[in-house]
């Protein structure tokens, strides 16, 4: 059942996670300082004060926690923090640190003032997490030598450093870890006007000619996420290069994204398959998640974690105690007529999870 849907979770053009191609292109498109960074006005303003104050004191910046959905710029901001402080940056991730020794090896090799970027910090192992408490607060770790009754703890002093933690699930961070960050910034989804600025900037760097209406068309389908906007821009650029004169207009952008199954609201084939099954097969619900997943040929987790968040945020799908239901906006988006109350949806409550 996994991956049965073409264009599904494994290869989504509108997926917010970065693949190898995205990482390579993002490196060239990333802004180098806070002045170039588009959007997140409140976080930028607050972070600018934190960094300027640290530079004036001649010390390291406070530890920073950045939370928010994938693709909103957490990694980019971490690199900007290092650049603004004139410090090197070390990049790792929570899943890569499974033992306290892994973290101790990284911390002991940091230079004074270095920025340590820890992505998906909520997925770090508990022993490493507990070691990080002392490292963040006292710039010291205790390295355990030996086993059993003869084991001894050797204190290891660390140079002052700045930890930048990034998480998509801030609620999973334990309070003792969350409280040790001096600054916490939550990254919001971007407004279409902000995404247009991102697209125009990326188009200049990619040497692509794009009209304002073309940028607006791409921005409207980018799900509020700069990473998706840049990915769609690259695919539209390819279409414009092959099928037209290379200039991205509204018509070219619309035609290109139709080829890639991205509709006017940013829904792709998986999103529409979920909505279509919910409305056509189950009369708009309520229907259980497992039943809905079987209907679209995907795993339960794929529907719940990949498709549903955006559909809920767009007001097209709602989660209720009885199951998933389609909203009036979903019927309108798919051009369908909802059944009369007490007819089409009357039996839908029988579909269990």
Automatic annotation (TrEMBL):
It is an enzyme of class 3 (hydrolase). Its main location: cytoplasm. GO terms for molecular function: ATP binding; ATP hydrolysis activity; four-way junction DNA binding; four-way junction helicase activity. Residues 264-353 are annotated as: Head domain (RuvB-H). It is found in: Cytoplasm. Mg(2+) binds at residue 75. Residues 60-193 form the AAA+ ATPase domain. Residues 332-353 are annotated as: Disordered. It catalyses: ATP + H2O = ADP + phosphate + H(+). Pfam families: AAA_lid_4, RuvB_N, WHD_RuvB. Keywords: ATP-binding, Cytoplasm, DNA damage, DNA recombination, DNA repair, DNA-binding, Helicase, Hydrolase, Nucleotide-binding. GO terms for cellular component: cytoplasm; Holliday junction resolvase complex. Has 3 domains, the large (RuvB-L) and small ATPase (RuvB-S) domains and the C-terminal head (RuvB-H) domain. The head domain binds DNA, while the ATPase domains jointly bind ATP, ADP or are empty depending on the state of the subunit in the translocation cycle. During a single DNA translocation step the structure of each domain remains the same, but their relative positions change. PANTHER family: HOLLIDAY JUNCTION BRANCH MIGRATION COMPLEX SUBUNIT RUVB (PTHR42848:SF1), PTHR42848. The RuvA-RuvB-RuvC complex processes Holliday junction (HJ) DNA during genetic recombination and DNA repair, while the RuvA-RuvB complex plays an important role in the rescue of blocked DNA replication forks via replication fork reversal (RFR). RuvA specifically binds to HJ cruciform DNA, conferring on it an open structure. The RuvB hexamer acts as an ATP-dependent pump, pulling dsDNA into and through the RuvAB complex. RuvB forms 2 homohexamers on either side of HJ DNA bound by 1 or 2 RuvA tetramers; 4 subunits per hexamer contact DNA at a time. Homohexamer. Forms an RuvA(8)-RuvB(12)-Holliday junction (HJ) complex. HJ DNA is sandwiched between 2 RuvA tetramers; dsDNA enters through RuvA and exits via RuvB. An RuvB hexamer assembles on each DNA strand where it exits the tetramer. Each RuvB hexamer is contacted by two RuvA subunits (via domain III) on 2 adjacent RuvB subunits; this complex drives branch migration. In the full resolvosome a probable DNA-RuvA(4)-RuvB(12)-RuvC(2) complex forms which resolves the HJ. Belongs to the RuvB family. HAMAP family: DNA_HJ_migration_RuvB. This is Holliday junction branch migration complex subunit RuvB. The gene is ruvB.
């Amino acid at each position: 059942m996994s991956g049965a849907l073409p264009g599904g979770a494994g290869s989504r053009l509108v997926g917010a996670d970065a693949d190898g191609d995205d990482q390579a292109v993002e490196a060239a498109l990333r802004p180098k300082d806070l002045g170039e960074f588009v959007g997140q006005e409140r976080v930028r303003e607050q972070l600018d004060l934190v960094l300027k104050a640290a530079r004036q004191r001649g010390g390291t910046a406070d530890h920073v926690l950045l939370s928010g959905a994938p693709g909103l710029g957490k990694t980019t901001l971490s690199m900007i923090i290092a650049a603004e402080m004139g410090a090197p940056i070390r990049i790792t991730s929570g899943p890569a640190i499974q033992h306290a020794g892994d973290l101790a090896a990284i911390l002991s090799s940091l230079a004074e003032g270095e920025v340590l970027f820890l992505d998906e910090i909520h997925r770090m192992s508990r022993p490493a997490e507990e070691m990080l408490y002392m490292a963040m607060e006292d710039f010291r770790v205790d390295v355990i030598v030996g086993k059993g009754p003869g084991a001894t703890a050797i204190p290891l002093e660390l140079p002052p450093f700045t930890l930048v933690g990034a998480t998509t699930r801030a609620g999973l961070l334990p309070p003792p870890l969350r409280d040790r960050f001096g600054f916490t910034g939550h990254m919001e989804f971007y407004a279409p006007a902000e995404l247009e600025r991102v697209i125009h900037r990326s188009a200049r760097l990619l040497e692509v000619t794009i009209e304002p209406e073309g940028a607006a068309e791409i921005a409207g389908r980018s799900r509020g996420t700069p990473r998706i906007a840049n990915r769609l821009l690259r695919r539209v650029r390819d279409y414009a290069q092959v099928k037209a004169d290379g200039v991205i207009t509204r018509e070219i952008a619309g035609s290109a994204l139709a080829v890639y199954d991205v509709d006017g609201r940013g829904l792709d084939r998986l999103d529409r398959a979920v909505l279509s099954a919910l409305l056509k097969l189950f009369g708009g619900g309520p229907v259980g998640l497992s039943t809905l997943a079987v209907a679209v040929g995907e795993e339960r987790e794929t529907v719940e974690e990949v498709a549903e968040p955006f559909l809920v945020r767009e007001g097209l799908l709602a989660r209720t105690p009885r199951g998933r239901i389609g909203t009036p906006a979903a019927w309108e988006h798919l051009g369908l007529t909802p059944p009369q109350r007490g007819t089409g949806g009357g039996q839908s409550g029988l579909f269990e999870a």
